[in-house]
Known about the structure:
By secondary structure, the chain is mainly α. It has helices at 14-27, 39-46, 50-62, 85-93, 100-124, 127-145, 151-163, 168-188, 192-210, 214-236, 240-250; strands at residues 66-69, 73-76. The chain folds into 2 domains: 14-85, Orthogonal Bundle (Arc Repressor Mutant, subunit A), CATH 1.10.10.10; 98-250, GntR ligand-binding domain-like (Four Helix Bundle (Hemerythrin (Met), subunit A)). A hairpin with a 3-residue loop joins strand 1 and strand 2 (73-76). The longest helix has 25 residues, at 100-124. The N and C termini lie far apart (45 Å).
Amino acid sequence: MQLTPPATRESTSRSELVGKMLAFFKERGYESGERLPSERALAERFGVGRNALREALSTLSALRVIESRPNSGIYLRRMSTDSSFETIVLLTEMGSEPSMKEVKETLEVRWALEMRAVQLACERRTEGDLDSLASVIDATQAVLSNKGNISVQDTAFHMALARCTHNEVLVRLLNSFYRISESRRFALFADPERGEISAVQHAKLYEAVKKRDVKKATALMETHFARAVEAWNEILGEDPHAEAERVGKTR
């Protein structure tokens, strides 16, 4: 069975090669602690020179995906708490699909962050911030009127809401979480009804933030995210009601 096709020699950038290697490791079913093919075998497999391969291996080592053992070889590292959040984001950008577990766990953390974000947004938003939110809402309606997918606009709304906090750390964190789930977000909004419901909720959140109504905005975000959890678990193939209840209890 043909898996990842061999690369054309010397035509692959470091990030592309890293992404292809990650896909290869996953497709071949290598497990944590398992020895990987030699440098020579990997160079031949991906059609690259030894220098290019070593650069990619150096990146994977820095990301704590692999480790080189003297006089032994290259091994796949244990990927759990040993991997930083930044590593997960970087691996995603290099072509490694995040696991369902990673998506679910980032969703739990994002729920907590967005609840606080909407509260700070009510307190700190400016007229310019409101204009940005309104612009995204208008763009969302334009896409929906053409029966389009609002995955991009949904992310844009939540990031505009995050920027209302004027907390750069919070903005960067939420941006990273959205990047992790980006590859699956189009499927999330493939159902037009789901997009319509989300758009209505966004409009209500906008009004609450505009009025600086922290209590209402918090309640709206709670409802919005509970629906999001259900939707995500339909995509990821779990019982949405059980997961929504579990995530709610962790907050």
